[in-house]
Amino acid sequence: LWGLFGNVITVLVLTKQGLRDTLNILLTSIAVFDTVFCFTQLLQEGIFILNNYDTHAGNKYLIAYFQGIVQWNHLALTSSIYSVAIIGVERLIAVCFPFLAARICTPYRTKCLVVLTEVFIFTFTFPQLFLFTEYKFQKHLVVRLIRSWATNSHAMFYWIYLMPLVQVILPLCVLTICYSVIVVMLRTAFKKKSKMASKITKSKKLKELKIFRLLFTLMTLALISFLPAVLMSMTLFSTKASGFVLNTDSFDFIQILVKFFSHLFPSANFIIYVTLSSKFAATYR
């Protein structure tokens, strides 16, 4: 509920400012996707809670969830991660090519990139609607989902290899590379500014140095926050690919951690690029 409320407020604030800035466009898209993700997650948790009190009604809504809602949950999560990856690329361009960034990252190109990304993700996640189609009704109205794709080699390839690769591993690896380069460049600039500040004390250079230290700390924390998600996603991918089957508790725990760390990205980027946007710009001025 807190995440849903916060993302709705973020959408209202950013849209009120207009979508004329590339960063506002990307942050608005992240907030929208996180809103959809939080809403679908609440539906899922609500159905599981209902199932504890009314098994018949809970199973009925559970079937409806897997038939028409689960795709939007995965779509929103994947879209959020890809939007944050785009922000990482945009920040990398701003740091590496500060004089060309304004011409490369225009609002029109950003909107087109967001739309094309969503079309790709929607097309990729669409087959998920057909992965859970067979149901077996057992005693006491207990429903067991049967994955009809288990005997289909193409469906297995999609579920085991393509889904974790495209949905999590690929965008997070892109984000890791971008932030790693940014952190290295910030570290190099930090050393140069330290030498300048040691010569000119109690001046504007010293103030800029304090700002830079704050930005460097925040970006380092952002890098640390999504590295566990990359490692856990790769572990999950290699586990599925090798044929070793995790037990339900371990699988659910890894999935929860991946989603948790994935949703630290919007918060970290919002703090760095919105709350401290003027300070970030001043650092590279």
From TrEMBL:
- What Pfam families is this protein classified in? 7tm_1
Provide the protein's localization: Membrane
Principal location listed in the UniProt entry? membrane
UniProt xrefs under InterPro entries: GPCR-Ligand_Int, GPCR_Rhodpsn, GPCR_Rhodpsn_7TM
| Membrane spanning stretches | 81-101, 113-132, 158-190, 211-233, 253-276
SUPFAM superfamilies per UniProt: Family A G protein-coupled receptor-like (SSF81321)
Signal sequence span is none
Q: Which UniProt keywords apply?
A: Membrane, Transmembrane, Transmembrane helix
Does the UniProt entry include the keyword Transmembrane?
Answer: yes
Q: Which GO terms describe its molecular function?
A: G protein-coupled receptor activity
Database matches in PROSITE patterns = G_PROTEIN_RECEP_F1_2
Could you identify this protein by its name?
Answer: G-protein coupled receptors family 1 profile domain-containing protein
Organism field: Lymnaea stagnalis (Great pond snail)
